[in-house]
Amino acid sequence: RKDPKNRYAQKTLAQEVTKIVHGDQQMNIAEQLTKVLVNEISVGDMGDLEIDAMRKELPSTKTTVGNSLVEVLVNCGLASSNSEARQLINDKAIYINNKMVENPIIQNSDFQNGRLLIRKGKVLKNTALVELS
How far is the CA of 53 from the CAs of 33, 46, 56, 95, in angstroms? Predict the structure, then answer.
């Protein structure tokens, strides 16, 4: 009651249900994925198990440094066409690792341990994993 915004009861219930249904390891992986999506930890700090789980849960693609962000957005399904992707970039609706995109070219500095998260808008469900190929 002292700090309702932290939702301790909801978090505990979610953890316990996930443990019962999927086991301790999957619950820990789910927690790590959530922390990455809400920017508590970096996608570069995730281990192989978490990245494998992320590939199953989020759209993903591979790219190279210097590639067009437009192409990446279309390849991972966050935009249905090149023109929609360009419009999203112009509208400043694209985030890489939770930072608004300024440059329409994928930079080496965008990657964290060979990975980045790209998001369309503020909604977390519009997130994709991009890996360096």
Answer: 8, 11, 5, 22
pTM here? 0.84
In this structure, is the dihedral angle defined by the CA atoms of residues 25, 28, 34 and 38, taken in order, positive or negative?
A: negative
Count Cα neighbours of 131 within 13 Å in the Cβ-side half-sphere.
12
* Number of alpha helices (DSSP H) and beta strands (DSSP E) in the chain: 5, 5
Q: Give the pLDDT confidence of 70-116 residue by residue, as tens digits.
A: 999 999 999 999 999 999 999 999 999 999 998 899 999 999 999 99
- Give the model's pLDDT for residue 34: 87
Three-state SS at 77: coil
